[in-house]
Design brief:
The complex is a heterotrimer of chains A (281), B (282) and C (279). Chain A is globular and about 75 Å long. Chain A is 79% helix and 0% strand. Chain A has a single domain, classed as MetI-like fold, CATH 1.10.3720. In chain A, helix 4 runs parallel beside helix 7. Chain B has 282 residues and is an alpha/beta fold. A six-stranded mixed sheet of chain B has the order 6-7-8-3-9-10, sandwiched between helices. A four-stranded antiparallel sheet of chain B has the order 2-1-4-5, with helices on one face. In chain B, helix 4 packs across helix 5. The C terminus of chain B is likely disordered. In chain C, helix 4 runs parallel beside helix 7. Chain C has 279 residues and is mostly helical. Chain C has eleven helices and no strands. Classes of the chains: A mainly alpha (281), B alpha/beta (282), C mainly alpha (279). At the A-C interface, helix 2, helix 5, helix 6, helix 7 and helix 9 of A face helix 1, helix 2, helix 5, helix 6 and helix 9 of C.
Amino acid sequence: MGGAVAADVTAAQGARPARGRRRGAPGVVELGLLSLGGFAAFFGLWFVVARSGVVPARFLPAPGVVAATFFHLTHDPFAGYTLQQHLLSSIGRFLMGFALAAAAGVPLGLLMGWFRWLDDVVSPVFEGFRFIAPIAWVPFAALWFGTGIGGPILIIFSGAFPPCVINAQRGARLIEPHLIEAARSLGAGHCRMFAEVLVPGALPSIVAGLRISAGLAWQSLVGAELIVVSSGVGYLMVQGQSNLATPIVMSGMIAIGIVGFLIDVALRAAEARIRRGWAGA
Amino acid sequence: MGRSMSQISFQSVSRVFRRGSEEILAVADVSLEVADREFVAIVGPSGCGKTTLLRMAAGLDFPSSGSVLVGAREVAEPGPDRAVVFQQFALFPWKTVRENIGFGLKCRGVPAAQRNAAVDRYIEMMGLQGHENAYPHQLSGGMQQRVAIARSYALEPEVLLMDEPFGALDAQTRIEMQEELIRLARVNPRTVLFITHAVEEAVYLADRVAVMTRRPGRLAEIIDVAPVRRAEAWEERPIEEVMDLGSFTHLRTRIWKMLRDEREAKAEAPRVTPLQRRKAGP
Amino acid sequence: MHIGATTDSRSYRRAVAAGRARMASAGRRPWIGAATVLGLAILWYVLTTATGAVSPARFPRPADVWSAALQLTLRGYAGGTLWLQIWYSSRLVLLGFLVAAATGVPLGLLMGMSRRAEALINPAFLLIRPIPPLAWIPLAIVWFGLGDAAKIFVIWFAAFVPALINTYTGVRTLDRTLIAAARVHGASERQILTEVMIPGALPLIFTGLRLSLQASWTTLVAAELVGAFFGLGRVLIIAAQDIYPGMIAFAMALVAILGALMTGCLGLLERWAVPWRRT
């Protein structure tokens, strides 16, 4: 009996992986290789489909062609400007719209978090307007502010504003009541309370809101530029589209993706830094 | 299966965890036999590897060396013959009390009518009438753990593995549940491996109490409670009376001492380090 | 990226939760909100109609919006009447949303359950994700023209990402003890999927679907603004070209109301499908 059990044991041990990991769990090397395979498959499939002629090259240019066009656009103007110039004017609009939304939204949110009556007054209107997709502001933006700077900025603003308000309000609302009571018992007035309790206390939430807001601002910018402007990456893409120049459209998408990615990375870093500073303090 | 045969058997079990490049010995060379229908409690300080032992019996973790046998078979995977009661209850939030208790039977493919009858039986046994269609979050902690125990019992497993099942409950509820468990063990005896860090709980519930040392977890001693319990008929008495008995306090104090001696012995060597660090600080 | 995706959807979740908390808190003194809305309406009337302080060429009067509403409903505008335009837009949104949900949720489940699938799929996702959905519009038009196919394609790209990320996060953040509990009670791998992982991820799946639906709607309006034969976006852009503020305002209101209705329907569906959720 004992012998049979022992034999059983060794057999089972042989079948079992070391370290007590659950059977069939993949290792780091395998996952790394799979990731590489995923990248290779993405570009490989693109390349093969483009080269095979299943889809005409006019519609799906090979990766190399797009890369060459992208490079070409950086020194050869298309739709009036080079790619960098288009990007600069896009980024300028983005920064203005985003800054405006933050400058208006964060204080409003903090005040709403602090003064209950203001929340009651503003919330219903705010909720109603939030259902309007930012892009639906395009006609009024063009009518009121024109298609140069003002119009696109209104659209970006309408995309970026809500997260600023919501997160600032929430940050202010969720501050420890003890802190507020402590500050009040120490004789802090409204102003001091705002500067020394509310703003620092709500900061992590505010920065998280700004990150969401920046993403939405960048998306709304793209939408605005597709419709109402005469420079910027979105405009470059629309021009590429009307010339059926797929590589140019794709270059625009890549440029937009890269800038959007960089904005996100920068704000993520800022967010992580502020959170870390908080934990350390 | 004969009564003398052991249901759970840890044979020189060790378990090494790897954290980064560091290797941590969580369980060191533990050998322990739990007989059929026996209730064994493992007590020890937190982080002594007692939960790891239970997880290995459940098939949720595996030894780095040595072997774990349940019912004379090497544990290779989790199975309904070894139901686990978790400290955090681990009830499915999206299932009602009834569906939670019937879960194991449903997995086993028991037909609905038969399943319902079994579920009704356990709802009654655990005093859950009136809560059949509640979701877990609508119940108190004690009630939730009753559901979890019923869910495990409903499978009528050979072995029950309980991982600090009352650790998340308040003191009052905890005592109620301890009495409840004793009652259950009488009407429905099972082989139980019970993990706890509460010494009194272990002495009150278990036939034998295994005391484990701080990391690396070793078995320090096994204390046989069953003869005393039988001689003084603990099961027949209310819990507060049992906990006042001289025999009970004697056992409890003995285990406490054992744990403390062991802690002090361990503390001697590293005591230098914190002092040094304090000096080096600003 | 995995961590990124998680925090991203968490902050989405936070934002959504915050929105809900706000609505709940606003509900406490609803007469103040009602008074504000009424006050704004009166202000609108006074500024545009009673005093004429704001020119009707820039901002519509209440009467302008009313006549625009009548025109669109009775005679039609931009190629069709109100019902046709609504039918066109909502049909496309629902189609695109369903395609996105039907691909995003299963793929999210797969990536959440299998590290191998995640490693294989993630790179393509990583490359595509930073491109905002609206940036696909020109490419969609080159590929598919101005018809339905282009719009469904763009909506799919817009709505697919939140559905996938939230489903994935829902599976990954699921309490491991619950899976262990299912396993020790004898659940098979398939039962773990159907009885534990899917219901466990359901609240977050619905969060993802709600974001997907909102993205679908925004994207469709944008796509219709860029180029379409019918739809509310088409109404908006024609009204802009005609410099017709009354119609612009009415179409914007329609966009908001339809968006709110769709979100509301999804909320009802969620309440029915996730009855165990704490309130």
